[in-house]
Amino acid sequence: MSPNVVKNQNDANPLEFCDLCFQRGKPNLCETYKNTFTKINSIHFSQQAKLDRILNKLQVTPRMVERRWTCTMDDSVRKEFLDSLWGIGVSVHTLDDHVKVLTKLYKQEIRKLGDPDNVKLSTMDTWEEFDPKTRTWIQVKVSNKNDEKFTAKVNLGNILKCTSIEGATYYRTNEDGNGSTALVPMEKRAAYNIMCTVAEPTVSHWKSDDLGKHVFIELKELRNIPEEIFSFLSRLGSKDKRVPDTLVFENDDIELVRTALSCIKVTLEKSSETVDITSDDKHGAMILTEKIPKERLQVLLDIIKEMGGMTENKEDHVTILGKRGSVKLTFSDDDKSAQDGNTIKVSVSALEDPSRFSEILSMIKKRLGLLDVPLESTISRHWPILTDSDLQYIVQSAISWYGSNPFLAVKIISENNKFGKVKEWHTKIKEGKVRSSLDTVTLGKIIQRTKS
Length: 452
Prior knowledge:
By secondary structure, the chain is α+β, with helices and mostly antiparallel strands. It has five domains: about 100 residues, no CATH class; about 80 residues, no CATH class; about 60 residues, no CATH class; about 90 residues, Trna Endonuclease, Chain: A, domain 1, CATH 3.40.1350; about 70 residues, no CATH class. It is built from 13 helices and 24 strands. It has a five-stranded mixed sheet. Strands 9-8-12-13-14 form a five-stranded antiparallel sheet, covered by helices on one side. Strands 20-21-22-24-23 form a five-stranded mixed sheet, with helices on one face. A hairpin with a 2-residue loop joins strand 21 and strand 22. The longest helix has 15 residues.
């Protein structure tokens, strides 16, 4: 089984929760995902030359991912790679290091909640209170007084969630200066961190496959846990479409998982059940080109053309011609893409992931001797907006390029009918209908440039 790495489903920055890790300065490299190392601080040119020789010896080819130098390797060479880094003076922050920071961040004690008290609510939307015993949300009973004021009886110090058509907002119940209970608005990240301090100890279960090679934890076992903890597990683990809604870990990583969950008073125990990953006989099935979303396939064909390649669509494959001959692209629902001689088997899920998409293009470029176009910016320009993840990727790409190349930033959001969707999303942010952690001020400048 070769599950593909989870790259934050909402497409978040894997370094988002490393702010505490780097208080004393950033290392040269960070293990953003299992066995994937990204440069986050400059490396002296003499050290970079040594690093390049190490990677060449290990047969690892670095690439650019979101404008950052990145290399991914097999687990079999990870230890040798890390040992070599210490030898050349290149610092690295691994996932093992990250879990040590988590153990210092979270404390084991349980904060007891205060007595129930009436609290005024602003609206009649759906209100829920966190239950420390079950770690679930329980709907609270809202009372409506004659003066159209809404109240509910909740525990002092607990977290409330209000759900409306605009999404969920979070509050903590605190005493105000007059001795009454009031609601204090909170960001989701802070709310969930407080929830784990009042939560009671619990047990989550993991399953093994028939061969005992992998650890499977269903997402329902990880509900309502802090984003810092879930982000770490997502970076360490992977997903496999044959076992949906489940994180998959290597056997050797179970102690890291256990340590991370213990930070929030969750004990990990083995289930008597096993996971059968061979039961899906459709796994790996070939997919006809007409079944692939046209917008995704067209991006691949357009960029190959821009690189100087020629394409020919067939019913079950695409032929690409270049200086060094031709290759045949076939498509499947496998988790990973692979090359076998003149045939490249492309995982259709890679067509939805810009970093994996870049790897496919690099493979084709190297095999056929195509033009060395800047893949990161080229992919950003051609990428369509079909999902929320696509939208986030396009906006983030444009913002990151604006400082050094505003013209390119404009092209990224304006080509391929993307401007209308980006503008609509920006308008919703200004109206308070959507929340975003992205630099919307810079996005506004790009939109104004596009209009002019």
